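Purpose: get a first structural picture of the assembly so the mutagenesis plan has something to point at.
Setup: two entries, given in the order below. No constraints added.
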Amino acid sequence: MPVAMPQCDEAVLARRPAIVAALKRIVPGEGVIASEHAMRPYESDGLTAYRQLPMVVVLPETTEQVAAVLGFCHREGIKVVPRGAGTSLSGGALPLGDGVLLGMAKFNRIRDIDFDNRAAVVEPGVTNLAVTQAVEHAGFYYAPDPSSQLACTIGGNVAENSGGVHCLKYGMTTNNVLGCELVLMTGEIVRLGGKHLDAGGYDLLGIVTGSEGLLGVVTEVTVRILRKPECARAVLVGFTSSEDAGECVTEIISAGMIPAGMEMMDRPAIHFCEAFVHAGYPLDVEALLIVELDGPRAEVDHLIERVCEIATRCRSTTLKKSNSDAERELFWAGRKAAFGAVGRVSPDYYCMDGTIPRAKLPLVLARIRELSAKYGLRVANVFHAGDGNLHPLILYDANIPGELERTEEFGAEILKLCVEVGGVLTGEHGVGVEKRDLMPVMFSEADLNQQQRLKCAFDDKSLLNPGKVFPTLHRCAELGRVHVHAGRTAFPDIPRF
Amino acid sequence: MNDILKPRDVKDLEQAVQWALAEGKTLEVVGHGTKRAIGRAAQWDVTLDLSGLSGVTLYEPEELVLSAKAGTPLAEIEALVAASKQQLAFEPMDYAVVLGTAAGAGTIGGALAANLSGPRRIKAGAARDHFLGVSAVSGRGETFKSGGRVVKNVTGYDLCKLLAGSWGTLAAMTDVTIKTLPHAETEETVLVLNLDDGTASKVMAAAMGSFGDVSAAAHLPAAVAVRIVETAAAQAAVTAFRLEGVAPSIVQRKSVLEKLLAPFGKLGALGEAPSRALWRAVRDVAPFAAAGAAGSRDLWRISTAPSHGTEVGRILVEEADAELLYDWAGGLVWAALPASNDARAPLVRATVAAADGHATLIRAPAAVRATVEVFAPEAPPLAALTMRVRQGFDPQRVLNAGRMWAGV
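Result (structure tokens, whole complex):
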């Protein structure tokens, strides 16, 4: 494992039998798993290159149990790693050998559906798709749709601020969550937000969303549900260059349209997907764009014509409009199967997740091609073109010695490139373990220290999910010190009135 | 009158905060100072005027992004993006109308620090939802940044969310990046007349759950409607629904809404210009303007679950003779109460607490704001957490000390 995790605390490990016994008193029955065999499924999340057995797995069923487990661990100085469905692609739920893995899967009930307030109150172990399924009979849905939505849970979505293909129009998790119940590392329970909008004080809900399980454990989430649009239609457009495709995206936005989704694929991605799904993608293009519009039928029909005019003006070589939901779903079928399609042609693949200013796409794709040649590794690119989120898929074979390391180096170079052109390290998969040591590429020490001071406000002993997000762990007391420059404290030389 | 420090650049600002730290002084952080009358009536040693940090540094309409120094006038930014047929979709309200200060002033930093929004909040979100990146000087006198210039970003904690609505108590912002969005091509408003508040609440919920794709829903009781709606039926209560978008879309959605609303009462409609005027008045809470009939009343801003708004309103009318304006489909209640020594805070807080939400005292004389909590008091574990967050950014409480809560 190239990324070093915090050193195991031997003193904690020595107390393991007593700790397991204490946890069993808090969560009776099958809720505490201590045998190596039974803990094996928890050793990894979606970032499978990293594996580590936890000290013990705890599966609480109530908020009170979560509070008691955290309170106990806080008193005893034991680390805790929260886990939803374990679909993180950045190692956010990677266990610690001397830590409790707190699995939230048993929190799987939908507590309240409130159409009058367009809100649903769910437990964190409810899957993303299950929220939509619970409200679709009345014509509603939950907007964020990460590609793992069948498996990933709302608690994990809150921790990672998950996105999906519709973010440009409907926002990410943070724009679609109204409230939560949060258990702090001390065992204290706080409620943030509710069914109302705006926070009454500091917007702590906005901080907890995307905090990667480092600030608290969410035990209930209130999400915003929306009326499902009357209809959706998509256009499939092929171009002989990524520049033309990029120009088309820019023109669509400049014309005042915010499509529900805009997805781009490069030539390798198109070929892998078409061979797998037979979606009817053209094979003689360099870039393929799927533009989806949703809303009232009159609006969609009106705007889809505008999109087609723009695509033609931008030298498209293929242009197909969906005329039925089946056809629209076929356009998407290839794109949605992209990861599987790549998995078919390569023993392993590594999915990257940077975001770039859209206009930099041709430059970034060209540089990725150069890097691909340099490392001797194939790469296919899928791109949420509307919001600039780029997912290069690097093809490799973990059985070839050194290839995983080369892949990770290649990936790191791509992410540095994203930052260099004005983008960021991660658009939706999170920092986790995977990108932790790249944080200094984007942030100064002062930036990271200020973020860690916020962490200290929630978790004074750094016991919750340590080793994730921050490359260097500082003690809270050390971070708290104020450096007053005494001695040169004359009234500063600043214009005064 | 306090001394005023007016930094020319970030270095000046860092120095000012470091000076205050060393000398044990407190700073009042202001942009144009348009919202100074909001918050507890606390005392600060020196005013830190950030209006000198001004200017748009990046605007790329096709990338939907704008960066500016925090002291840039909001009006300058709104005019700039309007020239590219774009807008700040969170529709920042202008508190000048209810506070009686100069209209059209205010900075982008102030708009973000107060997490401003408007009627479109229910569809497009508040300032927090459009705030992509920030650079700021903490109460420790150190510059830090968070976020970026792209909409999809989960790299590190989202400190933009925390600074939005922190009223300058955590850090003094120096540079901000926000999302811009296309301006709707046209708009219309559908009205239903003469609904009582409770029925209006149900009708607004039905409209929000329809294919109408409503971008604003407000209910104005008759006494309030007469001040801003210029129609023949102005003696009646008005429930209003805004439709924005391309013309063919509005035609279809209007017919959807009219079919839905017809059973409830007489319908009306406002074309583009009167529709814009109405929603600007709702946005700025014009019926309770400082210069108007309700100008001497204390003004509460209550955020609650939409379906509970009218119940909160009913109690405040019966117990405190409130005048009301409902925005956000009932989830935002503006309540103007006859002036009193305590702004009826115990009644307002108890009523709102029972309804899931919170209340902020937006307008009251300084003497009242010195004795009554302006922001909603928080329960003990949350209040302690708030205090620790504050501590992490501003351990000596240099910036806007005591503005949100006593001792914070």
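The CA atoms of residues 299 and 362 of chain B lie 6 Å apart.
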